[in-house]
Amino acid sequence: MADDVSSIPVIAVTAAVGAVVLLIVLLCTISRGDKDDKNQEDRVMMLWSTKEFSQKEHKFIRLNVDLDSATSVKFSPDSRALVASLANGNKIRVFRLGKKDDGSGNVGVAGTMDFPQVSPAEIINVGISSKGTFIMAGLADTHLIIYDLKGEQQEVINTHQMKNYFSALSPCGRFVASSGFTPDVKIWEVSGTPGELKVTRAMELKGHNSGVSNFSFNGDSSRVATVSKDGTWKLWDTDVRYSQGQDAKLLFTGSVSLPGPNLIAISPDGRTVAISGDSSVVFWDTVTQSESVILQDLHSGPITALQFNTSNHYLVTAGDKHLQVLHNVPGYYSTIADLEQREKKATSAGMRERILEQIKEARQTLSNILGESNEEVVTKKDRAS
Description:
13% helix; WD40_repeat_dom_sf; membrane
């Protein structure tokens, strides 16, 4: 989508409050191709609108990162700010977004705020709670740092995982989690108000035989997908009474058919899981607990990030100099299968009618994507099942 981009390490997706448009932010290090100075770089962030994904041209908004480059980025809940970690400064910078003064109506950086550096350890990921109460920084040692929105350090969590591989903040804004050298994912609940935040252990996802390289929450944080160096991935039910000591429930274990290291993403509705390995992606259907399809060689180099958008319609992958936006076709088949099961169990005519309408809409969308009739879509789905 952007031919002059040499690397795209990170993706962040948000649904703008009060708007239909979804935004995707890419953190890019772009080489100018200056043979006399190979270290010369542009430090930028680029914003695309998913509303234009079906169009031939994909315009983007370019945001500069002054005197540094970003390695991780997240939107604020109202989509009016970006929280990013800086490579050289090894600290967090908040970018406030606003319309430019040139009358173009384009979005630009209206102001920035840097948090103080609190550790020499590299920041591997950042997050901001969906309630806008705190910001998380995951470090490459064994620590997670919890800040308030003014950059004041509130809590320091020691994960005791020898080395953190990945960290994340759940979409519901209640949990922070970490995985690392040890074969588990540890999850904590962050509660309270700004200035009076409290961190308590919530649950641990145990069962892998080696370090967990990556994990992903679904939209309501009721499911977590994990992928490990042991060559397996697992799906967990995290909608449990953790405050009463109940741990997450293992729902399914699958084998990873792609070489590691692997990244994993679960769709917001929890019906689809995507796992990357090298330059390829494999889709899994969590309803049938089966592998759906493998897409080979999406990039010329390893995939550095993958994420579903908030509507479940797209999977976005980043790697080499390209961003690939994929229709979540396996997700539509999974949705249809799930809805058909629910239709059989419907307890009222009204409920059955609503489910049948949803099935019809999903089949129509799928036929539009594939360029097939509804009958062909149904037949193809029946063959696949």
